[in-house]
Structures are given as C-alpha cells and as structure tokens.
## 1
Amino acid sequence: MVHILSKENSVLQHFLAEIRDVNVQMDAMRFRKNMERISEVMAYEMSKSLHYKVDEVTTPLGKKEVHRIDEPIVVASILRAGLTMHNGVLNYFDHAENAFISAYREENEEGGQDIKVHVEYLASPDLTCKTLVIVDPMLATGTSLLLTLDAIRKNGNPKKIHVMCAIASQPAVDKLQAELPDNAEIWLADVDEKLNSKAYIVPGLGDAGDLAFGVKL
C-alpha cells in the first residue's frame, strides 16, 4: 500500500515547497527543520494505522480509559541524509528503539542509471516481531532501500515494515511495490515522475545530505 500525503492540502505542502525552493533550501538549518517537520506529519499519519490497546490512567480527579500504541517500534535511518527525518519520527514515537545503516551509491562514470549501491555499517536491535520504520528523504531508484532492508533483516524479521520518504520517483515507487514484502507500507510526502540520466529525481530538490550537512568530497 502506498500513501501519498501531498494529494491532500495541509501544512505539509508548505514544508515541501521550502525544501525544494532554491531560494530557501540553502539555509541548512531551515532545511533540516523542514525535513524534521515533514517527518512529524508523516509519523502522525502513519500512527493511524498502528494497533492500540485500552488502558486506564489516574488523573488528579479520577480515572480515565485511554488508548496506547501496542506495537514495539524500531526507527531505522539510512545515513547520512536519513538523520534529517529521524528525530521528527522520534518526536512522535519517543519510546521507539533505533537502528542506523550506511548505504551510499557509486556513480556510473559512463553515465546512465546503472548505479552500484554499497551497504557497509549496521547498528540495530533485534527486529523480530517488531514494527520497523525506515526513513530516507529521497527515494530515487529504490535500490538502496531494498538493499538496506535485506541487510537489516539479518537482525530479525519485523512483523510490519513502514517505509517513509519525503520525495520519491515514480519508477522507485513501482519498484518497491513489486519487490517489498506483503507486510510493508510506503508513506511518501510527494512523488515526482522521472529520473535524469544520473538517476537523480527530477525536479526533486538536489542532494538532501549535502543540503542538510554540507557538501562531501
């Protein structure tokens, strides 16, 4: 199942406009904050799909029946760009465990979209029967996301998988729909139609990692 939140007007549209706008996005602090706010909106929407249990709390004046999330959640970020969204998700799921994984792509010197993706570092708790939320700002080809999922599932098979991205390309969405397991859902702030010859999302926003943390060598 794919959820595209930009199909309905909300404050999310404002945050998306600012991360794309070349006159705004160069303010790294504002870019990071907007990515955090986008992930907060997405976390809220995703929370509606979770399982809740009935509980009771004591107030200063009595007792009240309440509902609490009844799923153990692990928030996983793909380094380094995923860090821009990680805290936003944690702001809503503050009891979640955390996982971090590095995945970087090797540019094709001859051009074209045939790009190698390397996964090197993984720090993750046991995922067995838990709800895994993978956050990554840009979903270009979908290859790094699938490799990340393969790597992280070595630490156990989650009961449910949520993929959360700010901007995705339609080809990547099609790829994930075909290759993700049946227990996965995809949450996207917005979708762009195509990739350019270097497999960057068009119109996209550029390199989310560089905009947030500075240009890398």
Note: The chain has a mean pLDDT of 92.
## 2
Amino acid sequence: MSAHRVTRESKRAVVARRLWLAVSLITLAIPLSGCGTGALWDKFLAKDDTFVDEPADKLYNEGLFLLNQKKDPKGAAKKFEEVDREHPYSDWARKSLLMSAFAYYQAADYDDCIGSATRYVTLHPGSPDAAYAQYLIASSQYDQIPDVSRDQDRTQKAIAALDEVVRKYPDSEYATKAKAKLQAARDQLAGKEMSVGRYYMQQRDYTAAINRFKTVVTQYQTTREVEEALYRLTEAYMAIGIVGEAQTAAAVLGHNFPDSRWYKDAYNLVKSGGVEPSENQGSWISRAFKKMGLG
C-alpha cells in the first residue's frame, strides 16, 4: 500500500472521529440543558403552518375577477392553475383547468391554451365540456394560420384539430362552429396552391401549373378557389395545345358556375381558338366533379 493511500485513509479516519465526537456532544447536551432545550426541539419538530393552502373556491373566484374585471387573462390563468395545483382532486380543479385554457386563449397564448385544453380532454374525456376544450385546441391552431405566401403547416394542423371536433362531438354547437372554420382553412390551402400555380403560369411552366390547379379541383372543390382553378386549367391547356382538356375545363366551369366571371373568360378563350366548351366524360376533370356529385 502506498504512502499516499495511507495518508488519505488516515485523514478520512480523523474526519470520521471528529464527526462522531460532535454528534456525541450534542446528544449529551440535551438532558443537561433542561426544559429550554426540550422546548427548542418541540419548536424545531413542529409542523410549519406558515403556508396554508387557500380554499379552492376563493382561488377560483379570484381568477374570475382577474379575467372579467381586471382584464388580466394571463394573471387569471395562473390563478386557475393554483387551484389545480393545490386542490388537484376537487371539482374546482376540473373547472379551473378548463378556465385556464380559456384564459390563455383570451391572452393569445396559444401554446399554453393547447397544453391546458389537451390535459383537460385527456383527464376528463366524458365531461360535457370536453367538446369546448377540443374546440379551444382547434381555435388556437386556426388563429395562427399564416397568409398564403408562407408555409401552411399550421393550416394543416388546424384542419386536423377542427376535424377532430366534428368527428368526436358531431351534435355539439362547437361542431357547427368548427365546420365554418374548416371551410375557411381549406380556402387557405386552396389559395396557396393557386398562388404557386399562378407563379408557374408566369414562368410558362404550364405542366407544373396544371398540377397545382389539379390539386384545387380534386381536393378543394368546395372552396371559392375552384372557379379560378378551372379557368386557369382552360388557359394552361390551350397554351400547350391540349384543346380537348381546355374545352372540358371550360364546360365543367360553365355547368357548375354559370354566372361566374371566370366562366365568361374561359368561354371567350376557347372560342378564340375556334372551338366551343365541350365536356369529355373521360377527362380527369369530369371524373373529379362526378365523384363529388357536382358534375
């Protein structure tokens, strides 16, 4: 055994002996010090009642006051979270969890709203308010939809969340509201496709443009963008000489949207090529609309 190792072990032994001696002295001092020490120990061992949980209903009402009177939704959310934290198994906790989600939504703190509402749906799936919690999740996603010039990942998430409301709670008032927002969100995705398609048209990349307009016609037929998409298909097909498809696009446009200004433009375009709008039943355009029951 090396001298260094012996030295280290000796030091440890010294430290251990000193600790033992200190503990022994404290133990011996207790009976010698009389009642004063006993009172000191009683105080040391007594439960600290300085911090007492506030009643759940008081915290909840304070949250309502901050939300409604003080117009402080973030402060209200924190107060509702106190109820959930201090009284986790109470009915007040369930109510407060939903109210914290609502308060965060009012504060446009969408991530925290989604977090609280998701927790509510997970813990209380059978609650009458679960539909509203799910709607708050969807609305938080919907309110963050960007303009058509940007990536539409958030729009896809909004559509998925809104679909969940309709699927899980079809008879609730929130399903009706979700359907209205779904239509607007799908318009947004169709608008994105149209924006890119127009860009390709300007670049004379007609095949790429047709693919974008085709997406609108096949996936977003109920959106406001479909009329222009059919016109742009007429325009693109005429440009590359596929006159039959141009005629079909114009004919389907006229059949489904006879008063559309886009139909007037499509009609004049095919007429300038010496033909009339005429539907080819075998065209993908015709099949797409028949599949949706629109043709």
Note: The mean pLDDT is 86.
## 3
Amino acid sequence: MLAAICQFAATTDPKENARIIADFAERASNDGAKLLITPESSLIRLPGKGQSLLDHAEPLSGPFVEDLKAASKANGIAIIAGTYTPGDENRVVNTLAVVVHGELVTHYDKIHLYDAFAYKESDNVKPGSVEAVTVDIDGVLFGLTTCYDLRFPEIFRALSDAGAQAFVVPAAWIKGTSKEEHWFTLLRARAIENTAYILASGEAGEKCVGRSTAFDPMGLQLADLGDGPGYRVVEIDPNRVSEIREIVPTLAHRRFKVSAV
C-alpha cells in the first residue's frame, strides 16, 4: 500500500488546520495513497510552556474530527491526525484520531508525556491508559504512538506483540541541542529492532524540527521532508516485513517480555 506523510506549521485556527489537512488528503488520494499521517498537535499550534489547552480541546465528536471525517470520505483515504480532547478540570488529553472511510474507527491517547528538556507536558496534559492501540488500514496493521513515546522502546515491543507491521509517530519534536540526531536515531532504531516500517510526521515551524521521515524494516530511510511544509508518499509492503523477519528473526529470539507497570 501507499501511505503519505505531511508536515506543516499548525496555526491557531483549528478550521484552517483542518483545511490544510484536507488539501493534503486530496493530494495523497490523487497519488494513490490509502493513508495520510499528520503531525501531533494538528488541531492547534503547539502551546508554549505553561500555556493551557483547556479552551482549545474538542471531543472526538467535535468540529475538527468532523472535518477530518469529511476529508476522508471525500477523498477515499484514511487520516491519522493529532488533536487534543477533554481530560479533567485542569488538563486535556493528547489524542490521535483515526478516521477511515469517513468514520472515526479508533483513537490513541498519548501515554508518555514530555517532561524533559525543561518542558513539562504533564502540567497541561493527562496521560492515556497504558495499552497498545493498532488499526488495520488496507491490509497493514499500524501501531499508534505519539512523539515522546519514541524514547520508550517498550511500547513499540507491545505493538509488535499485537501484530503491528508498521508504526506511526505523529510528533511536534521541539528544537534543541542534538534533538534532530535523537529523532532520526530513535526512529531508525525502532524500525530495525522491530523489523517494521515506521512513519513519522513532524510539525514544522518556529518551535519544531519538522524532518518528517520514514524507515523500512531494515532501517533504510525512505523520506526526509526537511524543515518546511512538505509531503511524501512511501510504499508499505507487508511481504517485505515478513521477509525481513525471516532474515533477522529478532522478535522470535527475544528472552524478555514487556509488561505494563
């Protein structure tokens, strides 16, 4: 199958961001892609330190996801997009909405929160429950993760145990010392150690690195979108996953199991 990754600098207007995604969805559909992956925080521009998101969060039945559903239906393409949903009285939930054939089929709530590099996401975001969430799109089982999850290989192992052949990593990877090196190194490692595809859509703009990319099950890089707005279609071949897992059977050779804490 063909999957598209895109990157853009999210605005402060969810309606405008949904329009940008709809334009990418049309382009991806015209190119034969069955899936479009957008960045984390596609709903609204990534907030600064200490800025609340309570006034911006929308339920999965809200207008942003409704716009995603309309774009999905109009273009015959699945969309995985980052949004924020209501959490509790003080915090929101960092959520991936998965829309297929114009319907919301599942969602993933970010588990690992970015309390690092002098940023504290947990001040404004409530973590999701610890579970591996997968979705079948056009015969490929995708495992869902978000941004900081990338630094925790256990979630990728759990998704592999659930049968994932590819991972999606929508992100708003904040700029900083060695951050781009970490981004590419960790993405390649997650692909190699799980012999799976990995597709990462990173927010572009002033705060974030962009650099949306993809790696195949051998860790070969398939794309690099640079630091500005961009788009790329890559091929996901489940037969290649099977072939590589026969050549490099690391998943079968494991001696430790992953369990939730």
Note: The chain is about 25% helix and 25% strand.
## 4
Amino acid sequence: MTDLDLLLGKAKEFHGDMCAGIVLGTRMTIAGMRELGMNPQEKNRDLIVYVEIDRCIADAIQAITGCSLGHRTLKYKPYGKFAATYVDLKNGTAVRVAVVEKKRTEKTGKDAMQDAVRILLETPESELLRIRRVNLVIPNGDMPGMPKHRARCSRCNEMIVDSKEIAHEGNVLCGNCAGVPYYTDLA
C-alpha cells in the first residue's frame, strides 16, 4: 500500500466517504508538506495550515495534518478557493497549494463522483496543482497557545480574545457589536 493509499484512507475515514474533495485535499497536503520537508505520516507540531474553503478538502487536510481549529493550527480564510497554505513555524517557510485541475467528467450523479475521483487520482501533480513558495506573516493573535491578548466588548460585555476586537470611536467592540454580525438577537 502506498503513502497515497494510506493517507486517502485516513482522510476518507475522517470525512465519512471518498469524494473528489478528499482526493484533492490529500494530494494538496502531500505536496504542501513535501515542499516544507515534513512527513505527513508524522505529527508535525510546527505546522499551521490556512485553508481557503470549507468543503471536503478541509476535512482531508485536517485528517492528514492533525491541524485543527481547537489547536489553533488550522485557520480558515473564507475565499471559496480550492487552496491551502502550509506554514512551517520553525523556519517561517510557507507554500501555497492551489488546484488548477481542468479535466471534468461529463457524467452526473454517483457515476460522476466515481469518475471525478479516478480522474483526480490519475492526473499528474503538475497538471492538478499549482505550488508556490509564499511569504506569510502570522498575526500574534493567530499563533497557537493561550490567548496573548484579552479585551471586553464595551457594548455587550462579552470577552474577546486573540486581538479580534474592533476599535470604534474610542470603544472596544466585538465583531457583532461593531456591525459585522453573523447573527442577530431575536429579542
């Protein structure tokens, strides 16, 4: 069994099934970690991954790298792109891996997914992924570990950690109170 087979199995088990996104996320992670000189079969404590989409790819990346939101090593950037940036905290190097796949299946339904998986497994990496070294400055508030900064919203009085507060007209506000809500109160 190859490394690809083992890692695909790990990602499939975490996600629940095999789909095109699991294949892409697995191949992206293998490439990204290889470029950083990291082994995807080992725990890499110095790895942070910024993933740019909240789809199946993210599950494959999390399953293989062990990075997670709770450990503050998986970061989500809502760009809607099939891409991720892998960062080695030890030496500060970063590599962004993006999907450039052009082959599409003409089938629909279950056959389409099986066909897409096959195509993505057979496509050479050079035709599937764009790999670039990039510069990335990780804000202090994004670093793993205990919160380095705390503030309290002057409007709702809730705690804000990791430098996520917004200064507005001399007040410290959370994102919701500053007018960037993802929810609204019913009462």
Note: The chain has five helices and nine strands.
